[in-house]
Write a structure and sequence with these properties.
The chain has 253 residues and is an alpha/beta fold. The protein has 10 helices and 4 strands. Helix 8 (181-186) links the parallel strand 2 (162-169) and strand 3. The longest helix is centred in the first third of the chain and has 21 residues, at 8-28. The chain binds N1-cyclic inosine 5'-diphosphoribose (N1C). The site of N1-cyclic inosine 5'-diphosphoribose has 18 residues, from strand 1, helix 7 and helix 8.
Length: 253
């Protein structure tokens, strides 16, 4: 109750109301099921307020990364040592995989904020209290969507601990792309000794353009704080571990 900033009584009433309503909705629309669980743990109205204050009634090209600080503070990421998965240019593969092996790895999209906002577009307008989902600019630097992902990625990387995994793409010529969020925001936030190792899983598909020997990975190694061990493995059968739940997480690759 203290955490939610409400008295036990109002909290219970709110949770019960949300639960009955949402569970009913969730039964009807089964893809929403995770929201049902989240509503039991998070105060959705407070989260929505913290989300809106970042962009509502503001110029959609002037939303700094820090605008999302209150939202991150309202739903902080929990460290999940040895299970945290990062990625770059492998969005579909990584989520296709983690979907099946939630017992082994979690991504930012498996957290309440990442899950709720993944794939969405939103923005506000000066002089309006509305939230818009169309005609939102993405070509200016400080747009609401990019600023959110940068802020959320930083917060998620800040809590990284133990052995961390990153899925990179062998289908690009520069798997460690210096302009990516993974390179610019996440890698430099991994701290030793909290983070013990960074283990790259290089996804090798048909007509691969690079592998663990790629020169860009030397830059990744260098960017890591001293004390963090680096490893890289070329993996061509990524689906195998996902489709066989009996394979132990440690022996996925
Ligand atoms: O720029 P990227 O990848 O290197 O960013 C990926 C990296 C991951 O490790 C995540 O933790 O940063 C985090 N992240 C997301 O979780 C995420 N979900 C959706 C970053 N971006 C995310 N998106 C959207 O994909 C967002 O719109 C951003 O611009 C792209 C980045 O994808 P990328 O270039 O493949």
């Amino acid at each position: 109750c203290k955490l939610c900033g409400a008295s036990c009584f109002t909290l219970i009433v709110r949770v019960l109301c949300q639960c009955i309503l949402l569970c009913f909705l969730c039964l009807v629309m089964s893809p929403c099921f995770p929201f049902c669980c989240y509503s039991l743990v998070y105060d959705c109205q407070r989260l929505w307020g913290a989300f809106e204050q970042a962009y509502v009634n503001k110029d959609p090209c002037n939303i700094p990364v820090q605008a999302y600080d209150p939202l991150i503070a309202a739903a902080p990421f929990k460290p999940q040592c040895n299970k945290m998965m990062f990625w770059s240019k492998t969005k579909v593969v990584v989520h296709g995989f983690t979907e099946k092996r939630k017992d082994c790895f979690v991504t930012l999209e498996d957290t309440v904020l990442g899950y709720a906002l993944n794939g969405l577009t939103w923005c506000g307008k000066k002089g309006s209290n509305g939230t818009f989902t169309t005609a939102c600019p993405r070509n200016c630097e400080n747009n609401p969507v990019d600023s959110f992902w940068i802020r959320a990625s930083a917060a998620y990387a800040d809590v990284a601990c133990g052995d961390v995994t990153a899925m990179l793409s062998g289908s690009t010529t520069t798997p460690f792309d210096p302009t990516s969020t993974f390179a610019k925001v996440e890698v430099t936030r991994f701290k030793a000794p909290k983070v013990r190792s960074l283990n790259v899983v290089m996804v090798i598909q048909k007509n691969a353009k690079s592998n663990c020997k790629n020169a860009s990975l030397q830059k990744l190694k260098k960017a890591l704080h001293t004390g963090i061990t680096y490893s890289c493995k070329d993996v061509s059968r990524i689906q195998e571990c996902g489709s066989k739940p009996q394979i132990a997480c440690k022996t996925c690759w």
